[in-house]
Fold these 2 entries.
Entry 1:
Amino acid sequence: MTASIIDGKAFAASVRDDVAARVGQLKKSTGITPGLAVVLVGEDPASQVYVRSKGKQTVEVGMNSYEHKLGADISEADLLALIESLNDDPAVHGILVQLPLPKHLNEDLVINAINPAKDVDGFHLSNVGLLGTGQDSMVPCTPLGCLMMLREHHGSLSGLEAVVVGRSNIVGKPMAQLLLGDSCTVTIAHSRTKNLADVVRRADIVVAAVGRPEMIKGDWIKPGATVIDVGINRVAAPEKGEGKTRLVGDVDFASAAKVAGAITPVPGGVGPMTIACLLSNTLTACCRANPETSAA
Ligand code: GUN
């Protein structure tokens, strides 16, 4: 069997087109332009790339982008003061603080200072609690993108066996909640799980978010299963020349694609969906903040 490829790049483009059309309607009918503020602390190169990409795509769908780039040595009090001012700014409907933060800043404190209604990452305790109890919340972007691809591929997920490999607050835990919400039987496994290969082999749906390059091999995959690879790992690629690198996922794509029914590639799978869902969450936050609008 050769897996069909789930094209996250094309799917993300269609989500962005839909957001752009709804933003256009909103502006025309109400004069309101959704605004997303992104806060970057320090100069982590990967974070800089993500933040640039988020800003560019925000503008492309017709929304306002507010970028706040702060020195790595900013004090917690100054960062909290910026968040407070963004909370109070009616032109800002979504706030995202790019993670990880430098060690001297308390991530939990910073995230929970964001107004939950503007928490487009869905990381605030209040949104985590709402998601966990099946209530309307802001849903973290990466798991939401994964869920959208799974629904698109399968239709109903009801009764399917899902194994999430990875237990992070950003991906693993919210992913498990979303799959449970769609009536999957969910296991959260991780790097310390005993007999991990056997656990993964039970799954109709595998979501790999463990952060270890090409850890999940083809012979761990049940024939015909759907594999969603959240990993983005840069590894050496001596075959491309000295000092060259390439991106790989948490799944060994070559072997898994021979067994799976469907699989997301890296790059071009989950990655583009994350930003598309961020734009969608920002529009949702804007519409909820302006209940007289009907575009939510
Ligand atoms: N760093 C890696 N992924 C994310 C994300 O989804 N949101 C934020 N804020 N930071 C991240």
Entry 2:
Amino acid sequence: MKYIVVSGGVISGIGKGVIASSTGLLFKTLGLRVTAIKIDPYMNIDAGTMAPTEHGEVFVLNDGGEADLDLGNYERYLDVTLMRDNNITTGKIYREVIDKERRGDYLGKTVQIVPHLTDAIQNWIERVAAIPVDESGDTPDVCIIELGGTVGDIESAPFVEALRQFQFRVGHENFALVHVSLVPVIGGEQKTKPTQAAVRDLRSLGLVPDIIATRCINPLERAVIQKLSMFCHVGPEQVLGVHDVSSTYHVPLLLEQQGMVRFFERRLNLNLDQRSPESRLRGQTLRQRWLDLISSQERLFETVEIVLVGKYTSLQDSYISVIKALEHASMRCRRRLVLKWVDSGDLEPKAETESPVKYHRAWESLCSAKGIIVPGGFGHRGTEGMINAARWAREQKVPFLGICLGFQVAVIEYARNVCGFSQAGSAELEPETPQPVVVYMPEISKTHLGGTMRLGLRPSIFTEDSEEWSKIRRLYGGKSAVWERHRHRYEINPEMAPKLEGGRDGLYFIGKNDRGNRMQIAELKNHPYFVGMQAHPELASRPLNPSPPFLGLVAAAAGQLDEQMENQLREYKPPHPESAMVYESPDVDAPEVTEE
Ligand code: GLN
């Protein structure tokens, strides 16, 4: 196993995740199997309890792990399926050591950061790196380890020390380090001092950079590379520039062009000549598909405009998988995505008096939308605005996709304005609502927040009659069941659901869980495209295998829905062929109790 650590210096948030994923992709183009681990040096057990505006979206894995959004990057770039243990946090590793201590496993010893915690980190990495991540079931050859934060932070110290020891545990030719740094441009001059300081910090902790990947707005000048090489004590071929590019899909190529593959080949003794012809071919095919993807993306001149109505619009990372899924779908439709952001709060009546300019702008965007998406979220703020957006889409026949909370609000809107339940609401949003269309799921804890939602991969089984008319079912290739990842506490009230369904242009719950009592997919009949999903299909979208509900929205907005539905009947590939293994027992889902 070859371990590649990707660490960061100077500041965070400069694209370390993309560089880590791109490095992994380059190894894949050699035909090697690649896995990834993200280390997050915060005390939380996982990202599940953090607001999206804090650290960006919470990425949900097949096994229900609530992880950092970088795991989404790895899954998309490397086309792998990861598990909760691929994300290590300070909270998780301390919990493991403390549990062991309580069991008496340390046999009376004083338990310390070094060696007990640092050993636990190294054992964890070795164990998780060996877990297969694709259908082949083969043990990976390469493990990318991304260390969150910046080296030198007090938080990451135990991890840095563990990695320092790890290089000796696994041996020099099995361990390499990519340090991501920043070269700011000031007065037109590329400045190397922050990188020099960052590398000095790294070395003082016993880690040696093999590659210094520097983020800069423009390509590194030759003299700057020389200077960095000299002051950071590395060869010039070890200094790579990652300048701003039109799309992050270019980054693997940028690294490749500067010799990253050649460097690692020597440094890690990769013995590429000994590869099987099959893995060689697999790598070449992947590389070609990636090149095709980039060149097709560059030839997109026509646009498709989608309006995203959400409550976390202040931080784009809150919706990163949603944006990626829209991009993948747009690429399939040969259009360039133009995404407009609307803060759902600005669509509410009170905004008209409080901030009239925002209110009118938001409504202008909504009214001119060719497609509207309302993604997931938690809590009351902004939900009335989402309900207004869903109403607009329904009445004006604008293509609409509601995800999780977006699905729930669309059903509430329908209950209020079509079915006459004028006080319809959600127990989450108005606990005392007299007409609860959305209710708390009985098995969910009311006292603990972390890891207690209905999480992970679950099936939705299409109703029989949906085969005749449902667009979303055709987009899923006509399959009778689909598997997507869930993350929610509330659900459509199973007792209310039958009262909402029906009619020539009505709403139908056409996808349900295996017991048939959880409404998971809804669609309006005779609407250009109006779909709601309780799951988060964006999490399974891949550049070359766009998520069907997203494809439907974008295709409908671009006037290509029929063509794309036709295409999907032939082309759709479920992204979770291993799902039946991960989803152990249908009994864990939907207990029969309806009241607590
Ligand atoms: N807040 C809603 C629930 O818990 C929706 C969750 C979401 O959008 N992820 O059911």
